[in-house]
Amino acid sequence: MAPSIDVSEFYARKSIFITGATGFMGKVLIEKLLRCCPEINKIYLLMRPKKGQGTKERLDDFINCRVFDKLQKLSPKVFDKLQVVPGDILQEDLGISIQDWEELQRECQIIFHCAACVRFDMFIRDAINLNTVGTMKVLKLAEGMKKLEAFIHVSTSYCRCEIPLLEERLYPPRHLPQNVVDCVKWMDDDLLGYLEPKLIEPQPNTYAYTKSLTEDLVSQYAGKFPIAIARPSIVTAAHKEPMPGWVDNMNGPTGLLVGAGKGVIRTMHLNDTYLADVVPVDMAVNGCILLAYITAIEKPKEIRVCNITQSGLNPITWGQALDMGRVHVQEFPFSVCLWYPGGSPKSSRVQHLIAAFFTHILPAYFVDLLMFLMGKKMFMVKIQKRVNYGLEVLQYYTTKEWFFKNDYFLSLRNKISKQDNEIFYTDIGVINWNAYIRNYIKGAREYCCKEDPSTLPQARRLQKQLYYLDKVVQMIIYCLCVYFIYYYVIRIFS
Fold first, then answer.
1. How far apart are CA 31 and CA 190, in angstroms?
2. Start and end of every Thioester reductase (TE) domain (predicted)?
3. Alpha-carbon distance 424 to 283, whole Å?
4. Distance CA 348, CA 27 (A)
């Protein structure tokens, strides 16, 4: 049964504090709240100060992002509701002034804690300080808020990678977060680097490890104020809002699609039959908004955990996603390409390594050799090493399969009205994956690579030229192979 108050009405006259406002989810969250909850009182944004920029200049830069284009046209005055709070998640008390600290504790009703480092390979001390200690400081701020109605901590459904079926509940970590925080304070880098693999085991990286630690830290505040933990899976480009295909980073699947589309990635290690549990960023944000709404209304004493995941309801495999991407990159090719898009995923690591040697490493050294002979700066080997490293990090998630229980996430749409379900949509089952991947490629080209749609005709001509060049090179290689085989066979039998 839906509450008597709708979502927009609930957020009316509320003041909200958001960390990670400049991140991928943070931007979409702010845009959605401003556009769909126009009576909201104020949104406080924690932002690091930039040298030579005042608060107003920092905010002006932020709202000039493409994600706010629709709002700039329809309701530019709504940006007056944004207030920058200069600070830094790494500094003591978030680097917030006493005046701002007191104002936040006096005025705020809702916190969305989205700030986190999503680099999987970050050194453990840095990951702990950003993801765990940073959350500790935000919790300290929240504890003194007089009107706090909901604290939403954004975690990840990959916080416990050793568990094949992740339920919507808290899992005790192997180590107490306070103990780990104390350790990284006094250990030097060499000792921490030596201990890191054993410390984070069985997690694959420091990102997953610190996320699991931080969930336990948040759980220690149960009963002090209403708390919910949002666990989105792999967050990808927007389904519908603020515009189809909007994405602003090259992380995860986006980098994979762009790299393959530019001909930089010709092989990858993944199981193409495994499900890709991806969630469009607008649906992940809608889930967080509804989670705060339900948490504030129901005021649960225990912590609610919400796995914002696909969970096989509208399944798509990694192989299907890549096949669709190959089709649509022909329609929206990139203006700058290394080679014609091609290659294929390999379920065998050995096959992948062999293919990477011939399609990634050798061509990179060949290009750099040509650059050296022409007296120009060599760059290709360096780029290829970065690409291969990125693939190594990503392949952990593309060669394993996880399952997530998401009953509570699914129940959110039953707790709101039909009208609110249309505005704050979370039904992943309605996504047409072919149309979604098409918009994804188009969005990555336009928003990530900053390529104007007017460049498409030229990019298509380049794509056609690269296609014929690719065929010519393949023919030459095949002919050389046949020649050498024939030559040595003749020598053996003559």
1. 43
2. 18-286
3. 8
4. 38
Per DSSP, 453 falls in state: G
For residue 436 the two structure tokens come to: 């979604």
Predicted confidence band of residue 173 (pLDDT cuts 50, 70, 90): confident
Q: Give which of 236, 258, 257, 256 is closest to 247, Cα–Cα.
A: 236
C-alpha span between 419 and 2 (Å, rounded): 11
**8 Å CB contact between 463 and 342:** no
pLDDT per position as a tens digit, 217-267: 999 999 999 999 999 999 999 999 999 999 988 888 888 888 888 888 877
Q: How far apart are CA 34 and CA 82, in angstroms?
A: 9
- Measure the CA–CA gap between 230 and 466, rounded to whole angstroms: 44
Q: Tell me how far apart the alpha carbons of residues 187 and 203 are, in angstroms, rounded to a whole number.
A: 21
Q: Which two structure tokens, joined as six digits, stand for 396?
A: 């952990």
Query: Two tokens at 451?
Result: 């390529």
Task: Please answer whether residues 86 and 96 qualify as being in contact, where contact means their C-beta atoms are separated by less than 8 angstroms.
Answer: yes
The Cβ of residue 274 has, within 10 Å, a number of other Cβ atoms equal to: 17
Structure-token pair, residue 375: 């007296």
Average model confidence (pLDDT) for the chain? Answer: 89
- Helix (H) or strand (E) segment spanning residue 62: helix 55-63
Comparing CA positions, the residue from 262, 291, 270 lying closest to residue 406 is 291
User: Given the structure tokens 């299907």, which residue do they identify?
Assistant: 320
The values of phi and psi at residue 229, to 5°, are -110, 120
Give me the half-sphere count of Cα atoms (radius 13 Å) on the Cβ side of residue 42.
13
Q: Report the DSSP pairing between strands 234-236 and 278-280.
A: parallel
Six-digit token string for 81: 């509701």
Helix (H, G, I), strand (E, B) or coil at 279: strand
Distance CA 365, CA 250 (A): 25
Distance separating alpha carbons of residues 190 and 197, to the nearest angstrom: 13
Instruction: Give me the helix-helix angle, 318-331 and 253-261, nearest 10°.
Output: 50
